Amino acid sequence: MSQLELLYKGKAKSVYLSENPDELVVIFRDDITAFDGGKKDVLSGKGSYNAAVSSFFFSYLEKNGIKTHFIKMIDENIMLVRRLEMIPLEVIARNRAAGSIVKKFPFEEGQILDPPVIVTDYKDDEHHDPSLNDDIILALGLLTQEEITYVKETTLKINRLLYDYFDELGLVFVDFKIEFGRLGDEILLGDEISMDSMRLWDKETGESLDKDVYRFEKGDVMSAYARVVEKMMFKK
Ligand SMILES: Nc1ncnc2c1ncn2[C@@H]1O[C@H](COP(=O)(O)OP(=O)(O)O)[C@@H](O)[C@H]1O
Ligand SMILES: [Mg+2]
To answer: Are residues 67 and 137 located together in one domain of the fold?
Structure first.
């Protein structure tokens, strides 16, 4: 990949231009970070796990009528995607209260949120990803009212599909974060869907099988990620 031009190096992935101007090459690196980059490590094989899980879910969502940027895998940790003009929003759906929402509001950790709660954060590390309401999204010109509705409805559909999928694996799909981007006048799901961007709890034991294992040093994060991948492989 050394001949390709680096477009963007993020906290966990590197994005390269490809020979086709409409397509990008995304490398899922082994870097793991938490707390706005305050905690950093390299975990061999993490990139491949996240790429495998992301590619599986992108295909799964496409089969269920959700438009995504996914084209194909080029290698274990390398994905070819459609180039999108990313919308700087982190769209978060929560089925249970955990993490920041428990710190900010009087929820009990693990409390069921039904209907699921959707929160939109501004993707801006400098300002620590502040939460936006619809009026601020409109005022910033990030989305139109119609697009806000589309993004939220699509997020709820994705949430339902993934919730049911993980439920069958004996896992609670606590919450997740996704990013969307524009392709012409369409909005597609971009970025990733992996254990770095979701919370998953073992239904029986309540154990975390996601990046919280790393954030809060709850054990070996690579074993946790491996358990999710194994459960998924066993199901397929
Ligand atoms: N299809 C796409 N087209 C253009 N940019 C994308 C696409 N999918 C993801 N991205 C962007 O590529 C970057 C991926 O790297 P990542 O390490 O996740 O970065 P970050 O530190 O910003 O979260 C993100 O900024 C994401 O918005
Ligand atoms: Mg990211």
So the answer is: no
